[in-house]
Amino acid sequence: MSARTILVTGGAGYVGSHCCKAFARAGWNVVTLDNLSRGHADAVKWGPLVEGDILDAEMLDAVFARYKPDVVGHFAAFAYVGESVQQPEIYYHNNSIGSFTLLDRMRAAGVSKLIFSSTCATYGVPQQLPIDEDHRQWPVNPYGWSKLMVERMLSDYAAAHGLDSVALRYFNAAGCDREGEIGECHDPETHAIPLAIAGALSQDRPFTVFGTDFDTRDGSAVRDYIHVEDLASAHVLAAEWILDRRGFNPFNLGTGQGTTVLEIARAVGKICGVKRPPQIGPRRTGDPPVLIADAAKAHSELGWAPQVSDIETIVRTAVAWHQKSNLVHSG
């Protein structure tokens, strides 16, 4: 049997590029579609890059006709919570309407399998911990709502049109490719670990911990950090799983373990060999004290388990990437 083909929207971005590598390693043909507004062409190393936007229906028709993918991996999205609050219109346009356009053209092309890059932001403030897939979904920002709208579309398209999908709800994606080929490069950077690395390695960019008065073991917020390579392996398993499954199928991706922001800062300092205490700032509006995943469903149904998501590996791979790419010193 010839190799399967996956079309990866947003495959020039952080999680998307790591997933492209994992699919290629698993024997898939990989085609990346990215408008490069926030992705990086040099992260596309495993198959062709089509530069285009998911809002462009004619372009999508041409891509589906040329490459005839068996599965679509849909990562193309804006993902800054603060920006979504300030400019909700661009989130609903890009994330929600863009996804609708993609689904519409998938139907026209007869492509009926999709893996969706979703988020724990669809849950909002946790009502119980750990959070499982049946937890109420009530986002607290437009980013979360824009992603939840896509999940709703996927559920309805599965029922009405036989477009089968998996929604993978990430908790805190972190770390970088252990072989150093690709990594994390956002502008602006909002993720705790790269900010902590910048704070450790650059005196003029102190790392700020937002809130040390939460009801947690050291007062700082607790998050479930999952290595991006473990996320990538879940996407490969999900794509293989959905080929002979039906319906809309959500899965959490996390470790079930929580790490505080202050623990992250200490781990970064230790690996960087730097003792520079973080600044302490006020809590950010809407920040829950604790977010931890119950990923038992992914374990039981996909056969997935995180392999490299211990905090030392996450931080060490992130530090190695930042030092190699000179991001910390480039301002």
TrEMBL record:
For this protein, the record's Gene3D superfamilies field holds: NAD(P)-binding Rossmann-like Domain, UDP-galactose 4-epimerase, domain 1
Q: Which residues form the NAD-dependent epimerase/dehydratase domain?
A: 6-254
Cofactor (UniProt): NAD(+)
Entry keyword set? Carbohydrate metabolism, Isomerase, NAD
| Record EC number | 5.1.3.2
Task: Give the record's pathway.
Answer: Carbohydrate metabolism; galactose metabolism
Spell out the reaction equation it catalyses.
UDP-alpha-D-glucose = UDP-alpha-D-galactose
Write down the top EC class of this protein: isomerase
Protein origin, superkingdom: Bacteria
What is the similarity comment for this entry?
A: Belongs to the NAD(P)-dependent epimerase/dehydratase family.
- Assembly notes: Homodimer.
What is this protein's record name?
UDP-glucose 4-epimerase
> What organism does the UniProt record list as the source?
Novosphingobium malaysiense
The upper taxonomy is:
Bacteria, Pseudomonadati, Pseudomonadota, Alphaproteobacteria, Sphingomonadales
